[in-house]
Amino acid sequence: MGVEAGGKSKRLLRFQLEITALVLLISPSLANGSKCILFNFGDSNSDTGGLMAGLGLYLGPPAGRQYFNRTTGRFCDGRLYIDFLCEGLKINFLSPYLESSGSDYTHGVNFAVAGTATEATEATVIPFPLSTQVLQFLHFKNRTRELFPQGLGSMISEKGFENAVYSFDMGQNDIAMPFNVNSSYPQVIEKIPAILSRIKDAILNVYKNGGKKFLIYNTGPLGCLPQKLALQQQIYTELDTYGCLAAHNNASKAFNVGLSELLDEMNSQYTNATFVYVDIFSIKYDLIANHTKYSIDSPLMTCCGFGGPPYNYVFRKTCGEPNVQPCPDASRYLSWDGVHNTEATNAIIASKILSGKYSKPQIKLKSLCKA
Ligand SMILES: *[C@@H]1O[C@H](CO)[C@@H](O)[C@H](O)[C@H]1NC(C)=O
Ligand SMILES: *[C@@H]1O[C@H](CO)[C@@H](O)[C@H](O)[C@H]1NC(C)=O
Ligand SMILES: *[C@@H]1O[C@H](CO)[C@@H](O)[C@H](O)[C@H]1NC(C)=O
Ligand SMILES: *[C@@H]1O[C@H](CO)[C@@H](O)[C@H](O)[C@H]1NC(C)=O
Ligand SMILES: *[C@@H]1O[C@H](CO)[C@@H](O)[C@H](O)[C@H]1NC(C)=O
Ligand SMILES: *[C@@H]1O[C@H](CO)[C@@H](O)[C@H](O)[C@H]1NC(C)=O
């Protein structure tokens, strides 16, 4: 007994020494590399200024009236959920890849561009679909490698790229586009396998180029957006329990089921990588269903819009246009402009993402990038 106990404590001691040695060994790199590196691909939900920079457009006030007190190209009164994630990870906000002035890429890059989908179609004139965003990432990685020896560029190391988290927030526009041209529900559903296949290709392209940690957001309840409710209810008349368009929400759910299955497959096939699925639909649907808990009065009403209840949304009288007044307190609204969430809502969404409770496998983003 005594011998065994002694053996145990010796083993424990050796284990502790090894741990100490390991910590000493890795701490120099942790000292400057302990911060997360995040590369994000997506649409307006996570665009921190890419569309405005890329096309030389200007998104005027009242966007950005919270926090920034200036327009930043974010479709929001203030910060997006991805900004709050960066705050949670204690890294700077991600600069848009397409922004040539004042950008900081030391902790990652944001390739997201508003209005994009998994492919460029006639419906989206914006030339930065998901596949292009991934090519831009590969270009960025090549340039970083070239410039690194000269001490220039982002200075992200090979290890940095390997340990980075690659997040994808795509699907909302792919699902929305066929509804915008009055496609029938079965016609929308038919498009889902091709959308998923393009998402898989994009993720695999990053994986084949050394990425191993992936965070993939599913899509929110499209049918609860005030814009869709105001403009498409005449055609898609069925409403769900909470007053959202049933066809749109069913299509979002069908896409999400497919995405979840895809990531399950990828986790079993590519065992040296982790693909984390984040259930944004549940986060946003809970905000609508249980809105009073979040001090939201009318979950389907736009803050910055026109026309009053029930949606405060009118075609060509949208946020940013003349004579369109924002509500005084956006924190009592989920929707900022009829399509995008308010800063207050984005803060809640980010805290729920960071909790890990909506992730499968249940890994917190913080642990994922530190791993
Ligand atoms: C916000 O910006 C406006 C216009 O540039 C300026 O007048 C105002 O003082 C700023 N407010 C704050 C709190 O910085
Ligand atoms: C990156 O560089 C490799 C060669 O090192 C090249 O094969 C590849 O096409 C480059 N990719 C981009 C997007 O520039
Ligand atoms: C969709 O239907 C609406 C209402 O019938 C019609 O006004 C609109 O022009 C249609 N849109 C397209 C792209 O067919
Ligand atoms: C993962 O495994 C594949 C196939 O064995 C290999 O080609 C790839 O380099 C590995 N990736 C990482 C990040 O270790
Ligand atoms: C949406 O899904 C629900 C539940 O499966 C079903 O009852 C309803 O008919 C569907 N509605 C539409 C428009 O797809
Ligand atoms: C509303 O909140 C309750 C209690 O937390 C929860 O069980 C339910 O799932 C929520 N509803 C939705 C649609 O998320």
UniProtKB/TrEMBL annotation:
Keywords: Glycoprotein, Hydrolase, Signal. GO terms for molecular function: hydrolase activity, acting on ester bonds. InterPro entries: GDSL (IPR001087), SGNH_hydro_sf (IPR036514), SGNH_plant_lipase-like (IPR035669). PANTHER family: OS05G0133401 PROTEIN, ZINC FINGER FYVE DOMAIN CONTAINING PROTEIN. Belongs to the 'GDSL' lipolytic enzyme family. This is GDSL esterase/lipase. It comes from Dioscorea zingiberensis.
